[in-house]
Amino acid sequence: MTKMLASVTGVAEAEIAISGGVDIIDLKDPKAGALGAVAIDTIRQTVSSVAGRRATSAVCGDLPMEPEIIRAKAEEIAATGVDFVKVGFFPSGNIAACSAALAPLAARTKLIAVMFADLAPDFEFLPVFAKDGFHGAMVDTAQKAKGRLLDHLPPERIPAFVDRARSHGLAVGLSGSLEAPDIPRLLPFAPDFLGFRGALCDQSERTTPLSAEAVSQIRDLIPEELQPGAPSTVDYRLLAARGYSPGAVDPVLGTDKIFVRDFVLPVEIGAYSFEHGHTQKVRFDVTADVLRVTDHPEDMRHVFSYDIIMDAIRTIVAKGHVQLSETLAEDVAALVLEHPRVMSVAVRVEKLELGPGGVGVEIERRKAKQQASTTRLSAEADALRRRPGKKDLIS
Asked: Which of 280-284, 367-371, 383-387 has the highest mean pLDDT?
């Protein structure tokens, strides 16, 4: 289950984040750089105030890649009692040496190696971090004004990072000026956590205070893992956006058709020998029947993003040569159907360079009914309605 990490500046913002259902409270000074460190006393006070209600983490700052400097700062932050210490690894010939210097600390503290998507990260260092005992690795962005994570690390490249990190036993995090529309695009990669700052603040400006409303909107897009008997912070109008089918609640809403048309990519495809070793243009047309959440969609919590369809296509194409158009169409359909709200999908794959016209295949696939999921939704919705003082939140 993907957790939500919120970067906060101290005790007051930590309480806002906890009230909003955030899973990990991360101490950071957004005015002091990508990994700006807050004062040690502030970290201690916040850890004491959180008092185990949530996991806590803190960043070491934008430090030079000098082993002793990084080791000393990481040791200092670890002594505050945070659960995780995040260490930035900027491009340098000293990365391996800095990692090795932290190995003794990694034996007793959970360290997270932070790499930067906008600084040409070298994922070959992932096994180095694992060897030195790091708990996890994450990708962030160093220059917040120059784009989001997906501007520098597009969806088709994310599996390479996630799979490589997981193969070495590392927990995986994704961050970097993430916004609400990015969440449904990143959740299919099943990172261990998604990190946020700007999207949780007033006017989406990372140096302004946290906004309870903004925290709630982001939280509603990330499925929540509840402890037995714990109250949910979820607005149950948005169950479908959090991975449940709303069909049993209000079948009258029906479905919408979300489509991507004339989406052309260079693809390594073909069974003939002359089709191997190079790409050819392929056009994709995809239409998905998607369960509706509400009659009045207002934000990303209420919609199915067409970016999910395009990301699915890019991710499959990035895997390499495909023998058949039929295989490509089936793979796209299967990936789109993994989304809980997609009931059926039509996929058209058309090769454009084999003659004067296009040739290809068109398929339609439908999701098998998920009675267990529907039953669970009905039970949770009924339970919410029965809560004292709660009005009916199901739209």
From this structure: 280-284
